[in-house]
Amino acid sequence: SSPEGRAPAKRKTYPPWLRFHLGISRWELYNRKDPNLAQLTHYLATQRILGAVQKTGGTQLKLLISFPNHGQALLKPMKQSRDTETDVNLFYFSDFERHNAEISAFHLDRLLGFNRIPPVVGRLMNVTADIREKTTDHKVSRTFFTSPAGNVCFYGQCEYYCSTEHPVCGRPHLLEVSLAAILPDLSLAPRRSWRSPWRRSYSRTKLAQWEKNPNYCDSVKQTPPYSQGTRLVDLIDMAVLDFLMSNMDRHHYETFEKFGNETFLLHLDNGRAFGRHSQDEPSILAPLQQCCRIRRSTLLRLRLLALPDFRLSDVMRESLAQDPLADAAPLLSEAHLSALDRRLAAVLQVVHTCQEKHTDVIHDDLDRYDQDSLTDRNTKQ
A single Gene Ontology molecular function, please (predicted)? Predict the structure, then answer.
């Protein structure tokens, strides 16, 4: 039985991270009008840090931060300055993960009306007081050193970029990080990982099947779970988000098992987004181009964000200015913001081209939103 079921009146007294968990529903992680969203980001940005251990899995350094009241957050450190563009000679799978990409992805996902990325907030941390003195993890503690410039640095243990050549350094102690709200424990809310049909080859030489076959979507449409329900248009939503922020690293996605196949896709792990503003990556839009399907709600939101009064770059600039790290410098440079407008126009052009060839492009989803809660025991599978 859920805490919510036992005493709904007590819910106001729960810490923000627990209220976030209780608010997860079949179709979104949070409701955009929920006042707890602001309370949760404030909690992540200001709560006293009790512990820091390295999070296993993944290829780059990330830490699990503990707060009072059993709260936790996933930390990604600043690795490169905001205005550094990803080297054109780097493959997408060799790119650094960026803390400001995680923050910006949360804001973009929310502005698109998806609400499928756990809340992320920026924070200025003291590497010595908040990590070195709090960690019980030897993988972290034994890698601390003072750089020739007198900055406190560490590198942890991971597959890529965990070495003295790629340290995370304070200035001399202060470090910008992103902190993402943690999802409910897998023992309480198991998740299923799905390989994306439009996954890249992750090879320097091979092409994926979808890159060779323009009719690739025909076979996807006939394969469960894409053959019914909203899964295909959910995947296309994710492709639109990824194209706008130029994230090529979407090899898998996850869903909550409790909701079966009729549920939203979690847009997790966005650190490789916003790497390059000077060029776009049209192949990210392959699901939209090849399938020619899009939700009506998504298309209406994209058209709104293309209007001068609601321009995507303007609403993103305004939204990101609320983040605590915006005081130091804008989280996205003007070049990245204008790239969002350019890419939005490209998405709308693809939809227009689709509509010239097909009559069934728009998936009408505006009569559907039943709010099944993740914590409701009576949820239909």
Answer: metal ion binding
